[in-house]
Specification:
The complex is a heterodimer of chains A (about 190) and B (about 325). By secondary structure, chain A is α+β, with helices and mostly antiparallel strands. Helix content of chain A is about 15%, strand content about 35%. Chain A has 4 helices and 13 strands. Chain B folds into 2 domains: about 170 residues, no CATH class; about 110 residues, Cyclophilin, CATH 2.40.100. Chain B is built from 3 helices and 20 strands. In chain B, the strands form 4 sheets. In chain B, strands 12-19-16-17-14-13-20 form a 7-stranded mixed barrel. Chain B has a 6-stranded antiparallel sheet with strand order 7-6-9-4-1-11, with no helix packed on it. A 5-stranded antiparallel sheet of chain B has the order 2-3-10-5-8, with helices on one face. Chain B starts with a strand and ends with a strand. The chains are: A alpha+beta (about 190), B mainly beta (about 325). Chains A and B meet through strand 1, strand 3, strand 4, strand 6 and strand 7 of A and strand 15, strand 18 and strand 19 of B.
Chain lengths: ~190, ~325
């Protein structure tokens, strides 16, 4: 683990498992052992902003104190995305079967509120983005790009390959927890 | 209630932003020139965290449907109430029924209007700010939008006898002249208010404190950032592009996405730096060569295109 300074009140932690660190750091903050305004996991790092004091990172390591078990979410999918057949051809396999059999984890969020980058696909299933992005991807589209799967929380432009769609509302400000896909959540795709 | 008659190029409700949701992809947002919004609130006797209106290049007209005190800070725009000039940086009364016109600022970009009681739109995730990137918070102001105003901390009713001249009115027969008093000074129990704010004349150059990192090691010579001169290019609430010599990379390619914060100087493939402001994305895949001091971001947010930018500061 490496800690880099990030501006005046930020620290960037380079770690092996950002989602696990995120949950461990959240737990430490809830116990009052860590004071900071934001904890932002990403692909290989966790950013802490508004940190007070000099935390002893080793005390917070996921191995030192395993956090509470993660949230789990089943996502019902209609497998009718416009890139479904192209993905099936690239994989030489049924995309629905591959996605149903993969256990995904929300590694981090970004791009839009409630958009989770889901990891878990084996490297041979990684796909390129579309050469030219679509101007409009419907909300609920289940999409693939690089090592990630994702679900568009609202209609937006997008360059990921679309294999299906869900009717789940991924981000709803009227819920107590607005995002269904918070970092660390375990996700399974099931048939709608 | 305040009614928007003309919003100008971009007018949004802003407070000091929403904290604690970056992990879900929700940025902080909030006033780009936070110091100016805090001052405007103090001028009208509000807590500094009240929501006000951020105008971009002025050009707006509002109508007050009830009497309020208000004050404009940030970019100094000419003001008038029902055609009579009103002062910048000082609290003035806006009688019920009156029209407030906000002109084009003499310099700077963003002007902040605070009203006694604050703009009381419903908060979203703890803030009333409009996040132009994610669409969270109230929509940008449009013609006809009615903005609720909160209860003033010291109600206008409890203030003593308004001199009609305080409201720029020659007589007391104006419908709004029935109880609007000067908002300050106040009793010792209150946080300090301010009476006026001078307009600061900008230079043709701004100097921004910067701390290099966290990805300065992705650049052939990150110190070039401090030696090169830049000029302000295109910008919005998300960030400001800088024109100048491109920074050469030592490490090619994209970085796996990592967290961003306001002030981060990101360098995309073309080598031209972009400084993120309040509505920045929460993660990004281009290396961040350094970070501008939070207290200097207001200067950048007020710098018009073409302003020279000099970074000064230290290694990380």
């Amino acid at each position: 683990m490496l800690v880099r300074r990030y501006g005046w009140d930020g620290l960037l932690l380079e770690v092996d498992d950002p989602a696990a660190w995120f949950r461990a750091l959240r737990a430490a903050r809830e116990r009052g052992e860590l004071t900071c305004e934001e904890i932002v996991p990403a692909a290989r790092t966790v950013l802490l902003r508004g940190v007070r004091g000099e935390p002893h990172w080793a005390d917070f390591a996921p191995a030192a104190a395993p956090p509470a078990p993660p949230q789990r979410l089943d996502v019902p999918v209609h497998w009718d995305g416009p890139d479904h057949d192209a993905v099936a051809a690239a994989w030489q396999a049924d995309p629905a079967r591959v996605l149903r059999e993969t256990e995904f984890t929300v590694a981090f969020c970004g791009f839009a509120p409630g958009f989770g980058y889901l990891t878990g696909l084996p490297e041979r299933r990684w796909l390129p983005r579309l050469a030219s992005p679509r101007a409009r991807v419907p909300a609920g589209s289940v999409a693939l790009a690089g090592p990630y799967a994702g679900i568009y929380p609202r209609s937006s432009p997008g360059g990921w390959q679309l294999v299906g769609r869900t009717e789940l509302v991924l981000f709803d400000l009227d819920r107590e927890s607005p995002a269904l896909l918070a970092p660390g959540t375990l996700v399974r795709f099931v048939d709608a | 209630m305040l009614e928007v008659l003309v919003p100008g190029p971009l007018a949004t409700v802003q407070d000091l932003g929403r904290v604690g949701y970056a992990e879900l992809g929700v940025s902080r947002s909030g006033a780009l020139d936070g110091a100016a919004l805090r001052l405007a609130n103090r001028l009208v006797g509000n807590p500094e965290s009240c929501a006000g209106i951020e105008f971009t290049y002025g050009g707006a007209v509002l109508r007050a449907h009830a009497s309020v005190w208000c004050a404009l800070t940030g970019a100094p725009a000419p003001l008038s109430v029902d055609g009579r000039p009103a002062p910048y940086g000082v609290a003035f009364g806006l009688p019920a029924g009156s029209r407030l016109e906000i002109g084009l600022p003499l310099h700077g970009i963003r002007s902040y209007l605070a009203v006694s009681g604050g703009i009381a739109v419903a908060p979203v995730l703890g803030s009333r700010s409009t996040d132009t990137l994610s669409g969270i918070g109230p929509d940008p102001l449009r013609v006809g939008r009615a903005l609720p105003v909160g209860r003033a901390r010291r109600g206008v009713e409890e203030m003593k006898s308004p001199a009609a001249s305080d409201l720029g009115e020659p007589s007391g027969d104006h419908p709004g002249s029935g109880g609007l008093g000067a908002p300050g000074p106040v009793s010792g129990a209150e946080p300090s208010t301010v009476d006026f704010v001078p307009a600061t004349a900008p230079g043709s150059e701004i100097r921004l404190r910067v701390r290099l990192g966290p990805r300065d090691d992705w650049f052939a010579d990150p110190g070039e950032l401090l030696r090169n001169g830049y000029t302000v290019g295109q910008g919005d609430r998300i960030g400001v592009r800088l024109d100048g010599p491109p920074l050469a990379r030592a490490v090619p390619g994209e970085l796996p996405s990592e967290g961003l914060l306001a002030g981060a100087i990101q360098v995309p493939g073309d080598g031209r730096p972009l400084v993120f402001l309040a509505d920045h994305p929460t993660t990004g895949g281009y290396p961040v060569v350094g970070v501008v001091h939070p207290a200097d971001l207001g200067l950048l947010a007020q710098a018009r295109p073409g302003t020279r930018v000099v970074f000064h500061g230290s290694q990380r």
